[in-house]
Amino acid sequence: MVRKTVVTLVAVFMVVIAISFGAYCLSASEDGVGGVNETDEMGGVENLIIYVNTGLDKPNNQYASYVVAFAAKQANVPNVTVFYGPSGVEMAKKGSLASLAIPDEVKTLVADQFEALNPEDLPDDLEAVARFEKEQLGVNILSCGTFHVIDGFATAINDTTEIVDFVTPVKVSDAVNAALGADKILYF
Question: CA-to-CA distance for 49 and 123, rounded, in angstroms?
């Protein structure tokens, strides 16, 4: 029970940091330094990859990756991708994202930082957040299909039997091409 409380507190701390990063990106200071305005579009970034190479052992990385993806879309970054690398592919498995609950106190903390957002508007788990970002905001969610096979929850790279429906497994060559085409890569 103590570990769960500590993990929740750490997750809350990481969400605050990620939201602060998002607020930093979304608001331009009076002298034009330190923020991004609508014409700057996050410093000219058009293709952002959020590379997540951790699993359930680092839940704060999972929360932060989706908060940063949300903030990037709010800052008008056209192409935002959450990519699960070799050590993060377990997050693509059915039930993994859903197992990361969003406690009511975190919902309140987040909602209080955005106008017209109420805690009850926020989902109960990270899978619902990811699904919303994919379906409503156009965030791409990819995973290294090679490691789905290596980790034993797929029989082929395109085998989606055990992964959530909104995650797209990709080949190594596709992952490399995506990385080479990115303006910015953030690593969690």
Answer: 24
Residue 52: count other Cβ atoms within 10 Å of its Cβ: 25
Q: Please give the C-alpha separations between residue 34 and each of 21, 25, 39, 40, 67, in angstroms, as whole numbers.
A: 11, 8, 14, 12, 19
Specify the 3-state DSSP secondary structure of 82: strand
Q: What does the angle CA 54 – CA 171 – CA 166 come to, to the nearest 5 degrees?
A: 65
Q: Which residue has 């990361």 as its token pair?
A: 100
User: Would residue 32 be called left, alpha or beta, if left means φ above 0 and alpha means ψ between -120 and 50 degrees?
Assistant: left
Instruction: Give all domains of the chain, ordered by start, each with its CATH number.
Output: 2-187 (3.40.1260.10)
Which tens digits make up the pLDDT trace of 117-148? 789 988 999 999 999 999 999 999 999 999 99
Tell me the per-residue pLDDT of 41-78, one tens digit each, with 9 for 90 and over: 557 899 999 999 999 999 999 999 998 998 899 899 99
| Contact assessment for residue 118 and residue 111, using Cβ atoms and an 8 Å cutoff | yes
